[in-house]
Amino acid sequence: MTSGTRRDFLKGLGQGAIALVGVRFLSGCEDLTFESKLPGGALPFITPAEDGSWYWQSGNGTSKSDAPRINKDDWSLEIRDDGGTLGTLDFGDLQTYAEQGHDLSYWKTMRCVFSGSPVGSTTTSSWVANGIFGGIPLYHVLQDVGAPSDAAKIRTSGADGFQSNIPMARALEEGTSPLPPLLAYQLNGEPLSRLRGGPVRLVIPEMWGYKNIKWLDRLTVTDDDAIFGTYETVQFDPEKTAWSEADQRQIDHSAEIALASVVSQPSSIDAEVAGPDVTVAGASFAGGQRVDSVEISLDGGPFEEADFAERDDVLDALDPHLRDLADRSPQSDQEWPYPGVWITWHKVLSQLSTGRHTLAIRASDASGVSQSSSTDQSLEVAEQVEVSFKVI
Length: 392
Ligand SMILES: Nc1nc2c(c(=O)[nH]1)N[C@H]1C(S)=C(S)[C@@H](COP(=O)(O)O)O[C@H]1N2
Ligand SMILES: [Mo]
What we know:
Blueprint: H1 3-14, H2 18-26, E1 31-33, E2 56-58, E3 76-81, E4 84-90, H3 91-99, E5 104-111, E6 128-137, H4 138-144, E7 153-158, E8 163-167, H5 168-171, E9 182-187, E10 190-191, E11 201-203, E12 216-222, H6 230-235, H7 245-254, E13 259-265, E14 271-273, E15 278-286, E16 291-298, E17 303-305, E18 307-308, H8 311-316, H9 320-328, E19 343-349, E20 355-365, E21 385-391
Parallel strand pairs: 3-12, 14-21
Antiparallel strand pairs: 1-2, 3-4, 5-6, 6-9, 7-8, 7-12, 9-10, 9-11, 13-15, 15-19, 16-17, 16-20, 18-19, 20-21
This protein binds the ligand Nc1nc2c(c(=O)[nH]1)N[C@H]1C(S)=C(S)[C@@H](COP(=O)(O)O)O[C@H]1N2 and molybdenum atom.
């Protein structure tokens, strides 16, 4: 791959370039379908747990109808190391951990690294969704089976054969910053559905979708630090592409979701919208960090800040059961917007003339990194979003 091609591909990782993704990655081993249920408008802060509200992404060519169907009473997780089985966990064991008070719930924004358009009427067309996942922190189980803490990584595997890995040090993290990876069996207070990877999937707060293994059935603790996984070795083929060592480490190791924004209103490129006052809305997210600001420039003018959804408005809109989960999440002690969770935003543009207008939208994270009109590091930062629309 020439460096020019690679740069184009990297752009695709940050935001759009679906055609390129299609050519290079869809053939044979990728099956991306999504349903559009939400009308254009402000995004709800929480994506309802219903399957059609989430994007569906199989990294293994699995269609929705072929998704593994695993009864929770038949589910088990084998934990092994290079020498053999360390332990086997069933759903009852997870319930026992929960009865002992070890369960944990937190907000997580899930996003596929091969994202759709950053502009779309729906969260689903941008392959990003946000919810409260609940389960048992992975470190409890690893400690209880005596997994060697000095191992390099854990190879992770789902019942459909999709694989990935998580660095051992990250798997053992116990604190609240970052939050611990979860063996998750709930989404928005409901049992994790089949399409979302139920009965049990891995959830890793700051990492791209492909690290969050659905229908989890095996963990292999290993000293082998080689790049491992379906996305890591096939979709991001290190043989065929000119990945730098830093890129490869990012893909395999930290896998932190890029700073990026999606626009839900206007609902498509070149949408016709009623004027003269036009509301722009969307969401931004910053890997494991907090989004600090989102700014919008109209017709090449100065960037002005958009308004974030207010924490009290978001929490007050939750039904009591979800509100309780949100209040008990370790994130509730954090400053708003929460690290690693998207923030929805809007801005009213007043008194626009009829005809065509353009917008540039950029988010900045708490470390001072901003989206810009060009970036060489799209694994970490997406380009700013550019949208045009017509006022009628
Ligand atoms: N077992 C398994 N887990 C998987 C996948 C898969 O194909 N099989 N796809 C991964 C990818 S690439 C993404 S983006 C997320 C999507 O999660 P979702 O379908 O719940 O939105 O699941 C990840 N976990
Ligand atoms: Mo993905």
